[in-house]
Structures are given as C-alpha cells and as structure tokens.
Amino acid sequence: MHTIYLVDDEVNLNRVLVKYLEQEGWQVKSFTSGEAAASAIIEKPDLWILDIMLPDVDGFQLIKRIKAHDETTPVIFISARDEDIDKIIGLEMGSDDYIAKPFLPRELVIRVKKILARTYVTPKTGVIRYGDYTIYPEKRIIEENGQEIDLTSKEYDLLILFATQIGTPMSREQILISVWGDDYFGSDRVVDDLVRRVRKKLSKLELETIYGIGYRLVAA
Amino acid sequence: MHTIYLVDDEVNLNRVLVKYLEQEGWQVKSFTSGEAAASAIIEKPDLWILDIMLPDVDGFQLIKRIKAHDETTPVIFISARDEDIDKIIGLEMGSDDYIAKPFLPRELVIRVKKILARTYVTPKTGVIRYGDYTIYPEKRIIEENGQEIDLTSKEYDLLILFATQIGTPMSREQILISVWGDDYFGSDRVVDDLVRRVRKKLSKLELETIYGIGYRLVAA
DNA sequence: TGATTCTCCCATAATTTTGCGGAAATCCTT
DNA sequence: AAGGATTTCCGCAAAATTATGGGAGAATCA
Fold first, then answer.
1. CA dist A60 to A42, A46, A95, B64, B148, Å?
2. pLDDT in tens, B145-179
3. What mean pLDDT is predicted for residues A39-49?
4. Checking phi first, is residue A164 left (phi over 0); if not, alpha (psi -120 to 50) or beta?
5. Which of A12, A102, A167 sits opposite B89 (nearest CB)?
6. Cα B5 from chain centroid?
7. Is the pLDDT of residue A6 over 90?
8. A208 pLDDT exceeds 80?
9. Other CB atoms within 10 A of residue B102 CB
C-alpha cells in the first residue's frame, strides 16, 4: 500500500482530496502548512502532492527539500496561478506532474495512479527490501543483513513472484504458471514443496498459507 | 440494466436526452424539478445527471442529499454558467464529472458510459469501506481500524457478495450459487451457518435477516 | 562418470474448514 | 397470546486442504 502526503492550506479541498485518495486504498496524510510538511519529509512517503501557494514555506522550497532528501520521490504540483504553472513547466523543478486549479478530484487520482505505476511497476530495476532481507531481482540474489543466501532457480522465481506482489494471495494455479510456465502438467502439490523449501531457507519470510486459496507474502 | 435519473427543467432538452440515454438500453427517469427528484433519491438509481439551475432545489443541494444517502452514487453535472462550472470543479461537490451547455447528447452518453464502466467494472480494484472496516477485495483482506481480521475463504466470499451489493436482499438460493457454486446440493441451512460465523467475526457488520427472504447488508 | 543437488511425487499426519442434527430463540400471523 | 414457521445457536463429526518425511528420478557440475 502506498503512502501519499498532501500539502494544501485550503482545508475544504484538502479534506475532499484526502477522501478521494483514501478511496483508492492509499494511506494519506495531509498538511495545511509547509512547515508541518517539511518536518515529515523524513517519513519518506511514496508520493507528495504540493500546493505551491502556502502561507509559510512554499511548494518550490518544499520540493527542493524533498528531492534533496530522496531524489526519486515523485511530486505532483497543484496550483491556481498561471505564472506558477509556467514556472513549473519552464524550470526544472523536478516535479513529476502538475495540475491546475480548478480540477476534478478524480483527475488528480488518475495522475497519481500514473505516477505510482511508473515508479513502482518496475521493481525489477531496484532492490526490494523485506525486513532483514534485501533482494536484487536482476542479480537473482537475496541477502540477509549482507549475508547472501543460496536459492535454487525455482526458489528464486517464487521469491520474486511474492516479493513483487506483497500482500496479494496467489493461487497454486497462478504460481504454477508463473514459476513452471503454462505448459506444466504435473500436480499442484509441487507448489507446496517449493513453498516449504523457501520457508526453510528464508525463515523470516512470512509466507502465509490461505486455506482453500493459496499462499500470500505478508507485509513485513 | 442501469437506471439513470435525469434532472433538468428545460423540457425539450430533457426529452431529447432521455431518448438518447434510453437508446443505450438504460432505464431512464426524468424530473423537471429538484423537489420531485429529491423524493426519488431513495430509489437509488445507478447514476444521476443534474442540471444546476433548477427552479426550486438546485443541483448543489441535490448532490448533497444524494451523496448523503449513498456516498458512492455517481453524479454528472450539466450547466451553462461558467461560475457554476468553477464551483463544481473546485469545491468539494463530489461530482464525478460535469459537462457544459451546450453539448451534444452523444457527448453525455459517452461520459455516462465511462462512469458506469468505472463504477461497475472495477469494483475489484478499489477498496470498500464499511464503517470501521476496510475491505481489499483483491487481497482478500478485511481490516478493522487497521487491524486485520481472519476470515475463511467462504466467509470472505460471503462478505464480498454483500459488500458489493450493499442494501440488496439476497436469497439463500443466490447466496448458495454465489458462494458454493450452482453444483451444490446440500441444505440451505449452511447459509445460515456461514452468516452466523461472519456476524461473529465482524460484529459491526449489519447483516440483517429478512424473514422468509434471506439476508441483507444494511448500509453503514 | 560419479557425486551432488534439485525436483517431483507419494503416503501419512496434522490442521482447518465445513456440514449437519437438534434444541433454543425469534419472528410472524391469527 | 398461542402456534407454526423460520432462524439462530451449539458442538461434534466429516470432509477438505495442507504440511511433512522420505525416496526415486532428473539435472548439474566437476
């Protein structure tokens, strides 16, 4: 689940936007002042939505501090003033998108979805962290506190499948197709076996069995 | 089939729009006054189309009452005045779309289609909120104030059935088919049992029994 | 080729969920 | 308020699903 931090001093709009964003299942925290938002930068939300005009610390200063803290955090600007828009577009503010007031809340939701998709659909490139484990998908390596753990190829396939779908239950059918391919005709039970092996090697991985459904990796 | 309620006091436009909407196979009811429309809110159409300028109760008041009755009902505004449009977009009107007069009827039809598709085709993507509960259908998870509650697979199937059909009474027959499949030949009584178990685990879920009929999930 | 590892499968045990009978409680009708 | 129908509740047994240990065959690698 993604966390989104919203900064806007118009309390009404703020409240509405929070409602819409939460409707999508995101965890939202909202701020009405730039100063309050600034002190939350260390909490590293997955995305920021910033109004430019704020009573104290304005959006431009905020984005600088956000990006200074973590260059990759996506930011969406919202603003009413045309000159601001020009500034956002013209300068290299590092903003990932902007939206001019007035706008429909669902328009904002659409943009957030796009950006999150762009940022998180490609976890293949980055590393995945899960508790003490660090997974390097492209290298097919998993470390526990820097100590590499040996996995066989199927074990690794399974790990990646779950690690990229944390929280989502996977049926044996889905697992078979993903790990063995759709031309496998043996028994379902090999999945149990593979799960057993992975559990044994990665004891801190919460691979939960969902009776009658399949398995799921519980969020760390 | 979807039911659409249209509110516009211009009788000519009203008639034309009804024709176009019915052309799509939707069941349309039209009103020329806000008061008449207001008393039809309890009929829960799938979508409302509201003109803002009405002789008596205006569109803004109407949407408040519609959303108060059921937060999720989609609403499309139509209006001629620019200032209205600004109001719709900017403020927390909860409108799902708007369209400025004059417009082509088929433009309206397109927007209605989009919204219906969004609302009904993808109930799986969004989360469902019911009082303190948050349901993540695709993850087969339900949380009460962030605290996950364990459900068995049939219990979850039942929950989803009701949660996606809030307010609609379901017969035992329907529940059997939906949860057990149409090839189940045991007794009806298992439904009672399942309902009992779900009630026990989710005590704040208002699963009302309708004597002689079945059960219904009362809106939170 | 031989040794080692990996994968698959089977049988059995352990676990979880579900079904069912009957009694108690509740609801509706008269 | 009584009586019949319906629903709820309870606990246990049956059924379904999953975990586990062990062994055979396949693949891999030196």
1. 18, 19, 10, 36, 39
2. 878 888 988 999 899 889 888 888 888 888 888 88
3. 87
4. alpha
5. A102
6. 13
7. yes
8. yes
9. 9
Tokens of A146: 């820097």
Structure confidence at residue A205 as a pLDDT band (50, 70, 90) = very high
Using CA atoms, how far apart are residues B72 and B154, in angstroms rounded to an integer?
Answer: 26
Structure tokens, B65: 């009452």
Position B217: which residue type?
L
Which residue in B150, B155, B145, B127 sits closest to A208, CA to CA? B150
From the CA of A212 to the C1' of C13: give the distance in Å.
19
Which one of B77, B92, B130 would you mutate to disrupt binding with A, by most A Cβ within 10 Å of its Cβ? B92
B203 CB below 7 A from strand D atoms: no
**Structure tokens that stand for A189 in this block:** 């039970």
CB-CB neighbors (< 8 A) of B97 in chain A: 104, 106
Is B97 at the interface with chain A, CB within 8 A? yes
Q: Which two tokens stand for residue B27?
A: 């069941």
pLDDT digits (tens, 9 = 90+) for A121-130: 544 456 888 9
- Lowest mean pLDDT, pick from B2-6, B56-60, B88-92, B192-196: B88-92
| Distance of A155 CA from C9 C1′ (whole Å) | 18
Instruction: Assess whether B185 (CB) lies less than 7 A from strand D.
Output: no
CA–CA dist B136, A165 (Å, integer)? 14
Instruction: Record the tokens describing residue B56, joined without a space.
Output: 């008596």
- Per the structure block, which two tokens stand in for B189? 């009584």
- Residue A68 CB closer than 7 angstroms to strand D? no
Burial zone of A178 (CB within 10 Å; 0-12 exposed, 13-18 middle, 19+ buried): middle
Structure tokens at B193: 């049992």
Span B87-136, pLDDT tens digits? 666 555 666 788 888 888 888 888 888 777 665 533 344 678 888 898 88
Closest Cβ opposite residue B92 in set A13, A24, A168 = A13
Distance CA B30, CA A146 (A): 67
Query: By the 8 A CB rule, do B30 and B14 touch?
Result: yes
* Distance (Å) of CA A155 to CA A132, B13, B182: 18, 64, 38
CB B162 within 8 A of CB B212: no
